[in-house]
Design a protein that fits this description.
This protein has 678 residues and is α+β, with helices and mostly antiparallel strands. The protein has three domains: 187 residues, Sandwich (Immunoglobulin-like); 171 residues, Immunoglobulin-like, CATH 2.60.40.1730; 258 residues, Immunoglobulin-like (Sandwich), CATH 2.60.40. It contains seven helices and 43 strands. An eight-stranded mixed beta sheet has the order 33-32-36-30-29-39-42-41. A seven-stranded mixed beta sheet has the order 4-7-2-1-10-13-12, with no helix packed on it. A seven-stranded mixed beta sheet has the order 18-21-16-15-24-27-26, with no helix packed on it. A hairpin with a 2-residue loop joins strand 5 and strand 6.
């Protein structure tokens, strides 16, 4: 108990003494002498890589008794050990801010040893040491540098001496600093070589092979993971028959393929070293395949200088080639759904087979089976609309519109009826120059700027001349013959009111067919919105014009029937065109137009208006007369034929025939009675 009380008392006295001494000695400008001095400071050290390890020896003299605090102001270094001699219960080493302090109460001489480390300053071809030290009467520094030669600046040569250290194969620099508070000097030499650490790389290779008829396209996504060290060179061993197209990755300086006697290797050099982390490299290549080759060995890329490699193999196909696994060694097959998400972008072709491997060597051999193409339909006319306008003198104009769907078909071949004269040819509303084909057929260019799946609207207008419609006779019509099938076609015939038809025959059915198609499973048929909007606009304009006078309705162009029906079915509900109950003759203006206009125009065309090398005109058909409707499904390689019997007499024979039928019974009764009377 007595010893404990004595220790507490000593600690209290020491604490009060420290505070009083510190208060007395830290006031700047004081004339009172410092109760302690550092007589000498000796620093010895050695450069080890980028670190300088040093040891300091201080000789400190305390001038009189009483608690004093002597700070060891070492800044810029990390203290690792401190000890003082002589040791007693009245001498202590205590931490003070970021350094240490010697605290004692007895006067005398003390030896303090401090071990610390600091970083070597490296700036290009210059190295140096920079450190804060406590101020002493005289300070010296001795530093061993493991370099063959060092060079000092003229200013540093005033207080730094250099001599070789044969035993350590280096140079010893001795600096005499005097009463300095800082060590700061530099020397010229090559920077210290960094510690060499062998790089440790891991790699994953994800290879996609797309099989075509005579070519295999290979895309490999390689992911490197650097566990330790660094490297700027990546190597990949590739097969002999392997044409590398491109190598992609971040910070690539160059890549080249080197051929050696043992192997063929792709070398990729990076601009900056690859350190701890991941790096992705993409290699794109192709490999030719012989036409009759029945088995194909999937190329195995092997990473050089990696500790471990694993990866996936994916096989896709394009065209008519069928693939199946034949031999699998060192790998095993996995489901396509097990592939990593990294491969979603690279696996745009449908992956048929997938394999996984964990090490080399491995081999995957595929069996190849090639199939021949089967011919399919290259073009079709999904819809056709024909409108024929007849005149009483026997002349007629026909407009034929077809909705063509073609795949790589350059020309549409159309054979017009015999002795027909082509007036106009349009494709998608634009004038097109047709060319002459075999047997006087027309070749219509189908050049397009849009996608292949887009429909083309082909429009033909041609003129024909027949005998005048007089008495009782027959009319035979034939439509154009296309070199593609026509799914559904409607034909509208506009005949003069005074030329009725009483009987029709041919390979068409009477009445118009509703233009509609079966919907595809789980999909709604879509139409060209822009084209439909255009058709509807033209319909609105035609309907507005048709609300005019009777004379205007008789000579208006038949845009509603001819062009709009390419997108909307014509169901016969337009009474302005049909008028089946109208028995009134046309007005004189209409009759004059119907009887004389066609003949005059046709004679002018035959003489001088028809020329080659010019763009066709856009012709509007007159709308007059009674409408007869016909249709046909699935026309292929033959003309649509339509025949009809007409009756046209100068006098209205229908009323006379009716009166005769009424008088005949009375005549049959009257004649016998007259004979009896006579």
């Amino acid at each position: 108990m007595r010893g404990v009380l004595k220790g507490v008392g000593v600690f209290a006295v020491a604490y009060l003494g420290w505070s009083s001494v510190a208060t007395a000695t830290v006031i700047p400008g004081s004339n009172e002498r410092t109760p302690w001095i550092i007589e000498s400071a000796e620093y010895t050290g050695k450069v080890t890589g980028p670190i300088v390890r040093m040891e300091a020896h201080y000789t400190i003299r305390v001038l009189h008794d009483g608690w004093v605090e002597i700070p060891l102001n070492l800044t810029g270094g990390t203290v690792t050990a401190v000890k003082a001699e002589p040791k007693s219960h009245e001498t202590h080493l205590v931490p003070l801010a970021d350094t240490y302090a010697l605290v004692t109460r007895r006067k005398g001489s003390y030896r303090v040893q401090v071990e610390f480390s600091t970083l070597l300053i490296q700036e290009g071809q210059r190295e140096g040491l920079q450190l804060g030290i406590p101020k002493s009467t005289f300070s010296t520094v001795s530093l061993t540098i493991p370099r063959a030669e060092v060079e000092l600046s003229p200013n540093e040569q005033l207080y730094v001496e250099s001599h070789s250290d044969g035993s350590r194969s280096g140079v010893v620099l001795t600096a005499r600093l005097g009463a300095a508070e800082r060590i700061a000097f530099r020397w010229g030499t090559k920077p210290a070589a960094p510690v060499q650490i062998d790089p440790v790389l891991y790699g994953q290779v994800h290879t996609l092979v797309t099989m075509e008829e005579r070519l295999a396209r290979i895309t490999s996504i390689i992911e490197y993971r650097m566990a330790q060290g660094e490297t700027k060179l990546l190597g990949i061993q590739v097969p002999e028959i392997f044409n590398i197209l491109n190598v992609r990755g971040g910070d690539i300086e160059e890549w080249q393929v080197l051929q050696t006697s043992a192997s063929r290797e792709l070398k990729v050099t990076l601009r900056s070293p690859l350190r701890e982390g991941t790096y992705r490299l993409v290699v794109e290549a192709e490999q030719p395949i012989e036409e009759k080759l029945a088995a194909y060995t999937v190329p195995a890329l092997r990473l050089s200088d990696v500790k471990q490699e694993r990866g996936f193999l994916m096989v896709a196909r394009e065209g008519n080639i069928e693939i199946s696994p034949q031999t699998i060694e060192g790998a095993y097959r996995v489901d396509v759904k097990e592939l990593p998400s990294l491969l979603d972008v690279a696996s745009r072709p449908q992956v048929m087979l997938a394999f996984k491997y964990h090490q080399h060597p491995y081999q995957v051999v595929l069996s190849l089976n090639r199939h021949q193409d089967h011919p399919v339909l290259a073009a079709i006319a999904e819809q056709g609309e024909l409108v024929t306008v007849l005149s009483r003198p026997g002349e007629m104009i026909t407009r034929a519109i077809y909705v063509i769907k073609a795949n790589k078909k350059q020309f549409l071949e159309a054979a017009l009826p015999e002795k027909a004269t082509l007036w106009s040819c349009l494709v998608n509303g634009e004038s097109i120059k047709p060319v002459a084909g075999k047997n006087q057929a027309l070749l219509i260019p189908l050049d397009r700027g849009g996608p292949i799946t887009e429909n083309l609207i082909v429009e033909l207008v041609y003129f024909e001349r027949r005998k005048a419609f007089e008495g009782i006779g027959e009319l035979a019509l034939a439509g154009p013959v296309l070199d593609v099938p026509v799914t559904i076609a409607n034909w509208y015939v506009l005949a003069p009111h005074e030329v009725p038809f009483v009987k029709f025959h041919g390979n068409l059915e009477q009445g118009s067919a509703a233009v509609s198609f079966l919907q595809e499973p789980f999909q709604t048929m879509s139409r060209s919105v822009g084209a439909v909007a255009l058709m509807r606009q033209e319909l609105a304009e035609d309907r507005k014009m048709a609300k005019g006078s009777r004379q205007a309705r008789g000579i208006i162009a038949n845009q509603y029937v001819a062009r709009a029906s390419a997108f909307e079915s014509f169901d016969g509900s337009d009474n302005e065109l049909d008028e089946p109950n109208s028995s009134k003759p046309s007005k004189p203006e209409e009759a004059s137009y119907a009887s004389g206009s066609f003949k005059d125009v046709s004679d002018a065309i035959a003489s001088r208006l028809q020329e080659q090398g010019i763009l066709p005109l856009k012709i509007r058909l007159p709308r007059t007369g009674r409408v007869y409707r016909f249709h046909r499904l699935l026309t292929s390689g033959e003309a649509m034929v339509l025949g009809g019997t007409f009756i046209h007499t100068p006098m209205p024979w229908f009323p006379l025939a009716g009166v005769g039928l009424l008088i005949l019974p009375f005549g049959a009764l009257t004649v016998p009675r007259l004979r009896r009377r006579t």
